Amino acid sequence: MTEEDAIFDASLKKKKKKKKGYDFDAALAEGDNQESALQADLDMEKKDEDDDGNVDIDLDFTKKKKKKKKPFNMEELEGALPETKDDETAENVNPEEAVVDDNLDLELDFSKTKKKKKKKKDLDELMAEVDEKQDDKENVDDNSIQWLGSDRDYTYDELLNRVFEIMRDKNPDMVAGKKQKFVMRPPQVVRIGTKKTSFANFTEICKTLHRQHKHLLDFLLAELGTSGSVDGNNQLIIKGRFQQKQIENVLRRYIKEYVTCHTCRSPDTILQKDTRLFFLQCETCGSRCSVASIKSGFQAVTSKRAAIRAKTA
Amino acid sequence: MSIQNLNTFDPFADASKGADDDVQDGLVHIRIQQRNGRKTLTTVQGLSSDYDLKKIVRACKKEFACNGTVIEHPEYGEVLQLQGDQRENICQWLTKSGLAKPDQLKVHGF
């Protein structure tokens, strides 16, 4: 799980950074670190609460700069700090947020996993990323719910921003050009002798996809048009020569058909069997649709006919 | 003597044929199977029985420079079988000749 977390963090960081790009440019330009910018925000909120007539809204950074100098007495800072912590914990507990995190990666990119593995080793970097992510989260949230505490009117711009933020949070793939990524370990495919191929981390992949061995096994064998079985070491032995690239292709097709939701493309799904038909139930959007049954179809005779005759007779 | 108006005419006669005049209905499964060594076999299952598969296979053999045959299967009907990995070729050829639409083709295998 830790590895996955690391991957998710990496993508999160990218995503959030963009937001920071336009929202907090001005604040950052000041040279202050984010914490202080945040506290300035909070102070702003209080100010806003004080004078309700102030409909003028807060994405105006010139104002903030002025105010920033004012409220740096320690009491207020300390008052502000626990508040942010609370926000943070609330966010972490919030199940929706967690779901979003899970969703984040949907393209089946086997090549990228390798790169990220290297990254994982760097713990310092990781921690830094986590910190940054949390900071960003606070910032974004502050921005969107600035009017929540006060009873002043919200403006069109604010609402628009809020809607877009929510949309982006809930389904990151919807935003144009931003595809979801679903990162998993590449299959380890090794040739055994000349005629057989071993798929070493078959059970592991089944687990990451949350699918039964039998189902994936059926699919693989039907697609490749061969026979095979799982041996004692939990590796899949397939008859025929196959390369990792080819197995990846087939896996990709499997994930597209039987793992990701056909509606929202979230990989958080359950495969149920109902009266001979398989149904894919999505945990994120709640959609339920039937998926094609696995058929191997017509199989031509490839082995020696004499051998078959000998077997049957 | 026949009166034209009294002839029975079935207005739904060609409804079963589909909206536009394509004969192909259902998916065409194109599969690959490994033989010994690096030899492979391509099978094309699900082509409409209205087509003359023998003529198709004759054209394919010439086009792809491979051997091929039509196999009668009790469950899947007539199945085209070509030597070598002809998946790309057969997909292009079927769409080009208008026998099947690209979304009716389903390519299996690696």
UniProtKB/TrEMBL annotation, chain A:
Translation initiation factor IF2/IF5 domain span: 179-288
Gene Ontology MF term list: mRNA binding; translation initiation factor activity; translation initiation factor binding
Composition-biased stretches (Acidic residues): 48-59
Any one GO CC term of the record: eukaryotic translation initiation factor 2 complex
Keywords: Coiled coil, Initiation factor, Protein biosynthesis
SMART domains linked: eIF2B_5
Pfam family, one: eIF-5_eIF-2B
InterPro entries assigned: IF2/IF5 (IPR045196), Transl_init_fac_IF2/IF5_dom (IPR002735), Transl_init_fac_IF2/IF5_N (IPR016189), Transl_init_fac_IF2/IF5_Zn-bd (IPR016190)
Any coiled-coil regions, as ranges: 116-143
Keyword Acyltransferase assigned: no
Keyword Membrane applies: no
An annotated GO BP: formation of translation preinitiation complex
Region feature Disordered, mapped onto this chain: 28-93
Entry's family note: Belongs to the eIF-2-beta/eIF-5 family.
Protein's recorded name: Eukaryotic translation initiation factor 2 subunit 2
Organism this protein belongs to: Oryctes borbonicus
Automatic annotation (TrEMBL), chain B:
Pfam family, one: SUI1
Species assigned in the record: Popillia japonica
Function noted in UniProt: Probably involved in translation.
Signal peptide residue numbers: none
Annotated spans, Disordered: 1-20
Keyword check for Metal-binding: no
Protein name according to UniProt: Eukaryotic translation initiation factor eIF1
Residue intervals of the SUI1 domain: 28-98
GO biological processes: regulation of translation
Domain of life, source organism: Eukaryota
PROSITE patterns named among the record's database cross-references: SUI1
Family the entry assigns: Belongs to the SUI1 family.
Matches recorded under PANTHER family: EUKARYOTIC TRANSLATION INITIATION FACTOR SUI1
Keywords: Initiation factor, Protein biosynthesis, Translation regulation
NCBIfam families associated with the record: SUI1_MOF2 (TIGR01160)
GO molecular function per UniProt: translation initiation factor activity
Keyword Protein biosynthesis attributed: yes
